[in-house]
Amino acid sequence: MTEGESKRISISIPIELYRKIEGRIAGTSFRSVEEYVVSKLENEFPSEPVYTKEEEELIRERLRKLGYIE
Amino acid sequence: MLPPHGGRLIDKITPEKDRAQLTAEAVELPSVSVSDEFRKDLECIAYGIFSPLRGPLNRNDYLSVLEKGRLEGGLPWTIPIVLDASEREASKISEGDDIHLSCDGKPFAIMHIEDRYKIDRKAHAEMVYRTVDTNHPGVAKTMAMGPLLLGGEIDLFLETPGKIPKYRLKPKETRFLFKEMGWRTVAGFQTRNAPHIGHEYVQKTALAFADGLFINPLIGKKKAGDFRDEVIVDAYEALFRNYYLRNSTTLVTLEMEMRYAGPREAIFHAIARKNFGCTHFVVGRDHAGVGNYYGPFEAQEIFGDYPDLGIAPIFFRSFFHCEKCGGVANDKVCPHGPEDHVNFSGTKMRQLLVKGERPSEMMMRPEVVDAILKHPEPFVS
To answer: What is the bridge-based pairing of β-strands B212-219 and B186-191?
Structure first.
């Protein structure tokens, strides 16, 4: 079991919905129904972008200089 | 915030401390000269606007993009970003080589050559533009390309300041900005025009259900008759000063050329805005079209083929001023007939502006008209 798998948990969805998703993602970059569902949920619960302290200071200073933020 | 296309924001900008050494090494390498427009594409790659691309497409990705509108791994990608070379240039280059790329004689990037392959220009044009008519600007450009394509990663060590530096942000910066503004949902709006009332209506309608509006005009080579870059920016500044809230709208330029590839370009434009951090993308009638090469709503219909795009399109059909409604309306909300409608004809507005005349306030904000008319030559000739 990989580290990624060990951090996962199973949930159930109706089989009819599963089949519909299978049809919808055929020929797309989603390799599984699980990948599709995870991507939709990630859209619903997005993560914050991560910046180093140095990056954050540089970007904030530039945006301030350009008048995007105060 | 939504992840970038492919999951990670690409950064191919050489760190400041390594630039001098890379520049010195680069001049010893064989070179390929590129146009100013292609240099802008490479900057888009380096900044992550074209994530997950790390350089001009290799053969497998190129063929997959042409045939399926997807990279080899299946990820949506519709416009081939390719580096063409002449036989003479390519004869000095082998797979595995490092070369430098230059523009106007000045080296600006190293490219690690993964492969070199032939282009079938006709097939390329047919797949991307759906026509081989050389009156189409994209087809004409394709037909003038060199016979060989070079694929591989780049490292950019010399950036251009940009045509309008104060509005040029990288995705890393826009994503930070959206976070600072507290925008969870952001609607991206692509434009190559100075705004008329119809555009404002679409933008504000999109803003009604998104936290922020990201207006992102294309700055770069356009066809004759299009607004000049400075005019577009000045016109938007006027609109912003007078009609937009600062805490919900922002203006950032995107320096790259129009391809006029209609439906395929709509997907490409959406991907670029996804990388900037947008969650939604506005697609209007005949998005990125030219002449009559594409149906009015083909650029919307193509989104049905990409459920894995990762950015939600917002479709607008036709909008107009309705005399009876007493304002801007669209065909989903207005019950009145065409006799009551006045269309926002960009062509008519241009015809007036070329003569130094003012479109009516029903069509264009007076402050926007002032901003346009202060330019003696507002249009590309």
So the answer is: parallel
C-alpha distance from residue B379 to each of B219, B225, B230 (Å)? 13, 5, 10
Instruction: Look up the ipTM and state it.
Output: 0.86
Query: CA B285, CA B292: separation in Å to the nearest integer?
Result: 12
Considering only alpha carbons, which residue of chain B is nearest residue A39?
B310
Q: Residue B124 in contact with residue B169, Cβ under 8 Å?
A: no
Nearest to B73 among A29, A42, A66 (CB): A29
Alpha helix ranges (H) inside B48-170: 59-68, 87-91, 121-129, 137-143
B31: which strand partners? B100
- Structure tokens that stand for B43 in this block: 């900057």
The structure's pTM equals: 0.93
Over range A1-28, report the average pLDDT.
83
Residue A45 DSSP label:
S
- Please report residues of A whose CB lies closer than 8 A to that of B167: 66
| Cβ separation A67–B166 shorter than 8 A | yes
What residue type is assigned to position B173 of the chain? E
In chain A, the largest separation of any two C-alpha atoms, in whole Å, equals 54
Q: What's CA B206's distance to the chain center, in Å? A: 19
Angle B220-B224-B225 (CA atoms, 0-180°, nearest 5)? Answer: 105
Amino acid at A34: E
Distances in whole angstroms, Cα of residue B308 to Cα of each of A32, B127, B282:
12, 21, 17
Q: How confident is the model at residue A5 (pLDDT cuts 50, 70, 90)?
A: low
For A15, counting Cβ atoms within 10 Å of its Cβ (0-12 exposed, 13-18 middle, 19+ buried), the class is exposed
Q: Is the peptide bond before B338 cis (omega within 30 degrees of 0)?
A: no
Give B110's DSSP letter: E
Q: What does the alpha-carbon distance between residue A67 and residue B275 come to, in Å, rounded to a whole number?
A: 22
- The Cα of B30 is separated from the nearest Cα of chain A by a number of Å equal to 34
Confidence at residue B139, expressed as pLDDT on a 0 to 100 scale: 97
Residues of B in contact with A55 (CB under 8 A): 172
Confidence check: pLDDT of B169 > 80: yes
> Who among A29, A56, A67 is closest to B74 (CB)?
A29
Catalytic residue among B59, B130, B192, B358: B192
